Structure formats: C-alpha cells, structure tokens
Give the backbone structure.
Amino acid sequence: MCAEKAIAEDSCHTDLVSQRITIAVREEVARWVRKKASEEDTSGSKLVGRMIEDEMRRTGEHRAAYESWKKPKPIKEEAHKRR
C-alpha cells in the first residue's frame, strides 16, 4: 500500500511493476529534462514517467484501462455456456 493517501490505488500497483521504454527526443528537450529533473532532485527517467502518468490520469484513459484489467475473467466453462 502507498504511504501517501493522495496517490491513487492503481498507481501503487504500477510502482511495483515498472516497465522500461526507450524514447528519442531532440537535444534541447533532453537538456530541459536533465535540468528539470535536477531541480526536482529526481532522475530524468522518473520525471518523464511521472509526466506520462499525469497525462494518462488527466485524460481518464488510465482508470478505464485499470478497471477493465481488474474485472474477473470468465473461466472456460462459463465462456462455453454463454455461446
């Protein structure tokens, strides 16, 4: 469980299952990320990751995806009965 109550329950889960990605940005963007990360005493990777998570929450897509993933899946017998 997350220490801060303000953090959404689903973000606690994503902290435990971090995934690495590679992105390409212009040099001026990379400089800005390094400077901003330094000001916030964090890494560029964590800064960009937070920015992406914030955008997902802002658009509401993250919550919908999490709710869909969380729904119980029917077992095979139940799936055959529905047909």
Observations:
- Residues 44-59 form the longest helix (16 residues).
- Residues 22-82 form one domain.
